[in-house]
What we know:
Elements: H1 9-18, H2 23-37, H3 45-48, H4 50-61, E1 68-71, H5 77-85, E2 91-94, H6 98-107, E3 112-114, E4 117-118, E5 123-130, E6 148-156, H7 158-162, E7 169-172, H8 178-183, H9 186-192, E8 195-199, H10 211-221, E9 226-230, H11 231-235, H12 243-249, E10 258-263
Parallel strand pairs: 1-2, 1-7, 2-3, 4-6, 7-8
Antiparallel strand pairs: 5-6, 8-10, 9-10
Organism: Pararhodobacter aggregans
Pfam family, one: Methyltransf_21
Protein name: Methyltransferase FkbM domain-containing protein
Amino acid sequence: xxxxxxxxxxxxxxxxxxxxxxxxxxxxxxxxxxxxxxxxxxxxxxxxxxxxxxxxxxxxxxxxxxxxxxxxxxxxxxxxxxxxxxxxxxxxxxxxxxxxxxxxxxxxxxxxxxxxxxxxxxxxxxxxxxxxxxxxxxxxxxxxxxxxxxxxxxxxxxxxxxxxxxxxxxxxxxxxxxxxxxxxxxxxxxxxxxxxxxxxxxxxxxxxxxxxxxxxxxxxxxxxxxxxxxxxxxxxxxxxxxxxxxxxxxxxxxxxxxxxxxxxxxxxxxx
Length: 271
């Protein structure tokens, strides 16, 4: 895998820390800083705890032999956590940024790494790498979050990438394009019934079509029989949410930007 766009030193350091034994203390410091930062906005207190709640739910949920798929691998922190929780499973990572994908392939030697974007049709797409805040790199030009660089990358369907492979857990964070990406995983979702962790951002984010998240909710619930929960819903044993609650969580004051989809009668049904 060629490294045509090597990562800046700062990102390489974040990658190293986030995929090492230093990840746990670094996350503790980050969570503490987030709580302190949010002291002046108590209405956002639950959102500030979201990362910690997600990790707590993952710890309860992911089994040691699960096969995990991380779509939107970024700097590898979630991949590293999944590898810790499922040491006897296989890890597959998908990352559209060539530089990040090359770094992930070097770090996760036993994993399968695909340096592609994902969508509901194969081809080639424009990918906008955010040079200031790389976590906002996307198929949309989110220049409101910092300067971007447009590159052309291959796009593939998840079904084509994975074939008949087993997948127990699927994490997807592709900055607003989760719905077309999971439409390209129709066969996998029907066959494997994985637990899904997906992002759905604020309704007021003008750079992303908020309707895609609503379509994804319907696609997973009505189309595939999933139940949707925010991390705090699962942590506190709350029931699955409705489309109306899903929308309200994403209005200010925000309650959640990441959600678990649990298949009825499948993985995670007894959580």
